[in-house]
Amino acid sequence: MKDLTRGKPLKLILLFALPILFGSIFQQAYSFTDTIIIGHQLGKSSIAAVGSTASVVSLMFSTVNGLVTGFSVIVAKCFGAGDHNAMRRAIARTILFAGAITSVIIIGITCFITPILHALDTPESILPEARDYLMIVALGLVVTLIYNLESGILRAVGDSVIPLIILVISATLNIGLDLLFVAVFQWGVRGAAIATVLAQAISAVVCFIYLIKRRPFLIVKPSDFRFNGSEAAEMLSAGLGMALMYSIVDLGSIVLQNGINGMGEDIIAAHTTARKILGLILMPFSAVGATMVTFCSQNFGAARYSRIRHGIRDGLLISFGWSTLAVLLIYTAGGFLVHLILPDGGELVTSTALQYLKFNVLFFYPLAVLLGVRSSLQGLGKSIVPIIASIIELLWKVCTVIIMIPKYDYFGVILSEPIIWTVCGIMVGVIAIFTLRRMPKDDPVTD
Predict the structure, then answer these.
(1) Which of 50, 183, 328, 400 is placed for a possible disulfide with 404 were both Cys, Cβ 3.0 to 4.6 Å?
(2) Which residues of the chain carry a pLDDT beneath 50?
(3) Which alpha helices (H) appear in 380-409, and where do they start and end?
(4) For residue 78, which of 87, 68, 70 has the smallest C-alpha distance?
(5) What secondary structure letter does DSSP report for 224?
(6) Which residues, in sequence order, are CB contacts of 418 under 8 Å at separation 6+?
């Protein structure tokens, strides 16, 4: 475990973020490996089938991750304040509330899967594969929740290494299962989905064993589920606020996916390929963001306000540095990355994916502000501003489908996210400055 309320913020953020980053890399390896194997073994049509469900899958995962992240803010605050009894009650509420909400999501997706895909304007030629893939991933969401709960709780108390180790094992197994189910057993996209769910299930089991053996103080008892109304309200406010923010962003992506699905298989395949690559490149931002949630939560619980200011500054410096490296990577190796996923996609697919990547990566600097500062505000319990920013993003993506795509075709999609990253990045940055200025200038304790 790591106490983030003491020591140099820059060093702590880097050391805490690196395991999260490596863990994200291996977690993304699930999706990236699926895409490469599907592209090589099954071809462009299957890539398009998986890609056509990407926004719905992302919405499910983001909602669950948002719930757990929001709940973990309360866990981290209690840990930073040194109140282990309150911390275990927070963990109990996390299990109860997240489990109930995830069950509703699973039931909703599985019962209305075909209408959802039709609403997304999924081409009939890829509809059966898209339905199979989405159904398996939706049913496996319970496994995703369990692992996210375990790793989120560990990160809240400063342990970002163990989730990484477990993910390395699981990702390696996932690659083997992908090859077995898709290339050997010829199960198609269903095999790729089953491999991902099974790998996550193993992660959840191993992590649970570790919690029992090495972190028994985190294990809740029946008495921990007896909490009062104010505690429940605080937890639901944090978790639902974060989940709402994440889900609003992905609802916008679903709206955008609807416009993209109407452009045909080549554009769907190109967009899917580009988004897979972009997902990998964005992982350092996600790692820093996850770190800032825990860092700000622990220090806010310990009333160490000057460290919060220094930590946010250092987190932004790290993200700006990565933005520069990302630009260099895409402009020197972007074509190689596209061919790595889809070697026989054709000139239109390759050029479209590369155009998307080269334009979007130039706007990583305002995106770094948006993601880093938004996460910091969440760690401070300020969830309203991030939600407002997410609503603005949703409305803009609706405008993209209604106005930008009819006028500029796929280039309207390429323009969409950089514009909203810049607008929302400026907004949350200005609000964060005023929020930090209202905090006490002096800490009640010193390092």
Answers:
(1) 400
(2) 446-447
(3) 384-399, 405-408
(4) 87
(5) G
(6) 359, 360, 362, 363, 366
**CA dist 344 → 35, 41, 45, 321, 349 (Å):** 13, 11, 12, 34, 9
42 Cβ partners below 8 Å, 6+ apart? 182, 188, 189
Rounded to the nearest 5°, which phi and psi values hold at 157? -100, 15
Three-state DSSP class for residue 349: helix
Residue 292 contacts residue 379 (beta carbons within 8 Å): yes
* Amino acid (1-letter code) at residue 299: N
User: Tokens 């090589």 belong to which residue?
Assistant: 40
Q: What is the value of pTM for the model shown?
A: 0.69
277-292 b/e with 16+ CB inside 10 Å = b?
Answer: bbbbbbbbbbbbbbbb
> Using CA atoms, how far apart are residues 10 and 13, in angstroms rounded to an integer?
5
CB neighbour list of residue 180: distance below 8 Å, 6 or more residues apart: 191, 195
117: which 2 tokens? 């895909």
pLDDT for the residue 214: 84
DSSP-derived secondary structure for 102-131: HHHHHHHHHHSHHHHHHHTT--GGGHHHHH
CB 289 within 8 A of CB 372: yes
pLDDT (0 to 100) of residue 179 = 87
Whether the CB-CB separation of 414 and 359 falls below 8 Å is answered with: yes
Predicted confidence at residue 84, as pLDDT, reads 84
d(CA 214, CA 414): 47
Nearest in space to 22 (alpha carbons), one of 215, 205, 286: 286
Cβ-contact 414, 267 below 8 angstroms: no
Whole-number Cα distances in Å, 224 to 84, 195, 221, 239? 11, 35, 5, 18
- Cα 81 versus chain centre, distance: 27
